[in-house]
Design a protein that fits this description.
Aspartate Aminotransferase, domain 1; 12% strand; Aspartate Aminotransferase, domain 2; 7-stranded mixed β-sheet; 400 residues; alpha/beta; 12 strands
């Protein structure tokens, strides 16, 4: 009998973390590495938010808080949803967790029984299917290719729903593609969901504020109020306010679900970090200048990267609507051989050869459920991105 639980065999370590770790190890060995694999803003947390965390320590806010968030933070979250999304929630409908990932995990673990299905559009964030598997559910992957702009169509959604379907996971703008759903596109999906009253929507809005070219962000419960009692709207402070290490995510949804998630959290992590909660409250209620400033920087970087990649032979890079990722196709490079003699049989071989031969770390598309692609995070400096584009172009030019 194995000491380790069988459930661990259902999942795999995060490929994004694995690639970032490998790049770090190579850098430690003296290699010149440019890592474009991690999805983390390269800016410091804004000063007024850092000051709020320090003030919380000095004020003695270092003890346990309510399991799923302080009353004042929950109220700030309710105000945020009302102000920015036109959604009316009471604090009893809000859960605060240790990052957005815990909100998602709690929701799935609290609701999925054996063989319950979760519809997940691909490309997807790497953790979605593994969370479903750990909870005993079945990920139903729907490929959304480059021809569809990496977006789920209403026809594909309707076809994927079965009597066992419990959740649809939507992420707009998306990790890894940066694709966002317009109001009309979201309306088409919510129209399908109205015909399936037993299916809930888990809306991952973590990149809400990182949208470009005037793109209008919308979330399902905002577009179709009739679905509000079947939507868990998840967000957090990590991407919008450069607070990845503070580990605060939150979700709002039906009170029965929120209570179930709190029950689960009470027996796992208990409350999120008290100091981080006070900092997150300041992020949501304080000056918002940083959000627009960082958006402008990311849009400039997006344009730099898209232009650089589309200048590379064999790469086709669509223009994303948001987030800080691009998801280019390398279909034209499959079957070729790199200058160092590595055959590019798939996107994983491409990513490994690119790292070995140029020192540029990216994440292969199979990790996100859709090949042949790779993901670049452009959450790093313009200088690093410019050098990385030059290296990738030389690599592609050497393939034959």
């Amino acid at each position: 009998m194995s000491f380790l639980a069988d459930r661990l065999a259902r999942i795999k370590p995060s490929p994004t973390i694995a690639m970032t770790t490998r790049a770090s190890e190579m850098r430690a060995q003296g290699h010149d590495i440019i890592s474009l694999s991690a999805g983390e803003p390269d800016f410091d947390t804004p000063e007024h938010i850092r000051d709020a965390g320090k003030a919380a320590i000095d004020a003695g806010h270092t003890r346990y808080t309510p399991v799923d968030g302080t009353p004042s933070l929950k109220r700030a979250i309710c105000d945020k949803f009302a102000r920015e999304n036109g959604l009316d929630y009471a604090p009893s409908q809000v859960s605060v967790g240790t990052g957005g990932k815990q909100i998602l995990f709690n929701a799935l673990l609290a609701t999925l029984d054996h063989c319950d299905e979760v519809v997940i559009p691909a490309p997807y964030w790497v953790s979605y299917p593994d969370m479903v598997l750990l909870a005993g559910g079945v990920p139903v992957i729907v490929e959304c290719g480059i021809a569809d702009g990496f977006r789920l169509t209403p026809q594909a959604l309707d076809a994927a729903i079965t009597p066992r379907t419990k959740w649809l996971i939507l992420n707009s703008p998306s990790n890894p593609s940066g694709a966002g759903y317009s109001r009309d596109e979201m309306r088409a999906l919510t129209d399908v969901m109205l015909r399936h009253p037993d299916v809930y929507i888990l809306s991952d809005d973590i990149y809400e504020h990182l949208v470009f070219d005037g793109f209008e962000f919308v979330t399902p419960a905002q577009v179709e109020p009739q679905l509000k009692d079947r939507v868990l709207t998840m967000n957090g402070v990590s991407k919008a306010y450069a607070m990845t290490g503070w580990r605060i995510g939150y979700g709002a949804g039906p009170e029965s679900l929120i209570r179930a998630m709190a029950k689960l959290q009470s027996q796992s992590t208990s409350n999120p970090c008290s100091i981080s909660q006070y900092a997150a409250e300041t992020a949501l209620t304080g000056p918002q200048d940083y959000v627009a400033e960082s958006r402008d920087v990311f849009q400039r970087r997006r344009d730099l990267v898209v232009a650089g990649l589309n200048a590379c032979p064999g790469i086709d890079c669509p223009v994303p609507q948001g987030a800080f990722y691009v998801y280019p196709s390398i279909a034209a490079l499959i079957g070729k051989t790199s200058a160092a003699g590595t055959r590019i049989d798939d996107d994983e071989a491409f990513a490994n050869a690119l790292l070995d031969e140029t020192g540029v770390a990216v994440v292969f598309g199979a990790a996100f459920g859709l090949s042949p692609h790779f993901r670049i995070s452009y959450a790093t400096s313009d200088a690093q991105l410019t050098e990385a584009m030059a290296r990738i172009r030389r690599f592609c030019e050497g393939c034959n």
